[in-house]
Design a protein that fits this description.
The longest helix is centred in the middle third of the chain and has 23 residues, at 211-233. The strands form 2 sheets. Strands 1-9-6-4-2-3 form a 6-stranded parallel beta sheet, with helices on both faces. A 3-stranded mixed beta sheet has the order 5-8-7, with helices on both faces. The N and C termini lie far apart (40 Å). The chain has 15 helices and 9 strands. Helix content is 51%, strand content 11%.
């Protein structure tokens, strides 16, 4: 029996080579002639920011910019950017980049319009109304943030990633130009691509899965599974870039209409405590948590296996084959095999320091709503054990 469900896709989504040139049309439709461009210095250095500047200037529009977004952006960054947004009299936002600029833009939209700090709006349904027009322009095939209703911001005072969720902060437009993801370094393409795959897989197997989210997740897995290795190997492969960008967006639509699972619940504390990039934290945790969830697996594990290997599951299929295939994917893409490889740079005490923090990380992970829909019921002791295993 199919349980009751609903779905919504509030964004006007535009896909295609050169779609970036439509930015002035969207701003005109929004009635805005003064926009804030939110991005990062890395994209400025490789000329991607200049592409947007040129389009805005040629259209005769005013703009301000904030380019100091960092991975795992903090509440301080949101406050600083929101102050500049208000001072410049901006009436719309362009988020150019991966999940970090998009999270900042969503949070800035909240703080600039409704006041206070972004922590005041933590949780679901706390934002009182829609933010100003937000145009999301992804430059990675990974987060799917251009079509999601969430902003995740690091509260450094608590070493905690807070989440603000609600359709009020959804981007108004999603501009998916595959040319923009073709400049990504191989390591970024790999981590972001696996993150997108995890979005699709967790949405597909969690207890909140429904026919709509599963359909979007299946198409995402089909596109990403067949193209992620090719894209990491050659980012200028246009066909692979198109597939990865669409796959990432479809995965975002999938989990925006249900939720995720233990991988995302557990990756947020890893990023908050050790400043590990979100996609990397997810990818490293992925095989361990898929093994944990195998006890609750069904035919969907076989479907995932087929999408990521291109092979038939066959009558001899067992869930461990999916877990092994995911480990092999990480290895093929150069993803680190354990948490200690990516976290000890920040944890000066090395592995022992990380072990001491596991109980607090587990407590923080359990605060995520994603744990509630994970395929296998998960306790705080389970999370501690999974962290130790992934370490």
């Amino acid at each position: 029996m199919i349980k009751d469900f609903g779905f919504i896709i509030p964004q006007n989504c535009q896909f295609g080579v050169g779609a970036l040139k439509k930015l002035p049309d969207f701003l005109k439709a929004a009635g805005s002639d003064n926009v804030m461009l939110i991005s990062d210095r890395g994209l400025e250095a490789i000329g991607v920011v200049d592409k947007v500047r040129t389009i805005i200037n040629d259209a005769g529009l005013k703009y301000a910019e904030y380019l100091d977004v960092l991975p795992n952006p903090t509440t301080d960054i949101v406050d600083e950017c929101a102050a500049q947004y208000k001072a410049a009299g901006c009436t719309a936002l362009i988020a150019l980049g991966g999940g970090s600029p998009m999270a900042v833009a969503k949070a800035v939209g909240v703080v600039a319009k409704f006041g206070g700090t972004i922590g005041d709006y933590e949780g679901v349904g706390k934002v009182p109304g829609p933010i100003d027009t937000l145009i999301a322009v992804p430059t990675t095939a990974g987060t799917g943030s251009e079509v999601t209703v969430a902003a995740v911001i690091t509260d450094t005072a608590r070493n905690y990633k807070l989440s603000v969720l609600g359709p009020e902060i959804s981007p108004t437009y999603a501009v998916m130009d595959p040319e923009l993801i073709m400049t990504a370094p191989a390591s970024v393409a790999a981590a972001c691509g696996v993150d997108a795959l995890i979005h699709a897989m967790e949405s597909y197997i969690n207890t909140d899965a429904n026919p709509f989210s599963m359909a979007m997740a299946e198409k995402a897995m089909e596109l990403i599974g067949a193209n992620i290795r090719k894209f990491v190997a050659r980012r200028n492969d246009l066909d692979a870039a198109c597939a990865m960008m669409l796959g990432s967006t479809f995965a975002g639509i999938a989990f925006a209409n249900n939720r995720l699972g233990d991988i995302h619940a557990m990756s947020h504390p890893v990023s908050a405590f050790f400043n590990v990039p979100h996609g990397v934290a997810n990818a490293v945790l992925m095989p361990t948590i898929f093994e944990f969830n195998a006890l609750a697996s069904d035919e969907r594990y076989a479907a995932i296996y087929q999408y990521i290997t291109g092979k038939e599951a066959g009558p001899d299929f067992v869930p461990q084959m999916t877990c092994d295939a995911l480990r092999q994917l990480n290895e093929d893409l150069g993803i680190p095999s354990c948490l200690s490889e990516v976290a000890q740079v920040v944890a000066k005490g090395g592995k022992a320091e990380i072990e001491k923090l596991i109980p607090q990380m587990a407590i923080d992970a359990m605060k995520s709503g994603n744990v509630m829909v994970n395929p296998r019921i998960t306790t705080v002791k389970d999370v501690e054990a999974l962290y130790a295993q992934a370490l």
